Amino acid sequence: MAMGGAGGGGHVRGRRRARKRPLSEINVTPLVDVMLVLLIIFMISAPLLTTGVEVELPKTEASSVETTTEPVTVSIKQDGEIFVGESQVQWEELVLRVAQEGGAGAREKPVFVRADGRAPYQAVARVMARLSSEGFTKLNLITDTAPTPGEG
């Protein structure tokens, strides 16, 4: 086996190797692909994160409420159990837990009351009256929008 001949595959002496220059441009195509996938994932999962306690909301024809601050959510289940966020609270702890959940300036933040449509009216009224009497002024009763006639 002869070394250094004019056979194929060897290094040719007279030829200079091309210098490797640092790559000055970043290929953004994979970055955009990853960001679009993450955007889609967050768009799909975000609505699922807002409802912690499963209640069947009553249907109304009211329009949606626009808010810029993060609201405190109080949910009332069919049997009258009260939840602040996703944790169940006793009647005596209601105001304290809503204030804790709202943080600084909690009485100025909107409070969304999500009550099951089959929950007793008395339970909903008691919760709203208690929060109102304790200084929570921005109380919102959350409902589903009823389908308009002609919708399926």
Describe the structure.
With 152 residues, the protein is an alpha/beta fold. It is elongated. The model has no long low-confidence stretch (mean pLDDT 76). The protein has three helices and seven strands, in the order H-E-E-E-E-H-E-H-E-E. 13% of the residues are buried.
Total DSSP E strands: 7
Tertiary shape? elongated
Number of helices: 3
Give me the strand/helix succession: HEEEEHEHEE
Average pLDDT confidence is: 76
Main beta-sheet annotation: 5 strands, mixed
- In quaternary terms, these chains amount to single chain
Strand order of the largest sheet: 4-3-2-5-6
How much beta, percentage-wise? 15-25%
Proportion of helical residues: 25-40%
Q: Which spans have pLDDT < 50 for at least 5 consecutive residues?
A: none
- The chain-level structural class is alpha/beta
Radius of gyration: 31 Å
Q: Gap between N and C termini, in Å?
A: 84 Å
Q: Briefly, what is this?
A:
The protein is built from three helices and seven strands. The chain has helices at residues 29-50, 94-102, 121-133, and strands at 59-60, 72-76, 82-84, 87-89, 111-115, 139-142, 144-145.
Layout of SSEs?
Layout: H1 29-50, E1 59-60, E2 72-76, E3 82-84, E4 87-89, H2 94-102, E5 111-115, H3 121-133, E6 139-142, E7 144-145
Notable characteristics:
152 residues, alpha/beta, five-stranded mixed sheet, two-stranded parallel ribbon, 3 helices, 29% helix, elongated
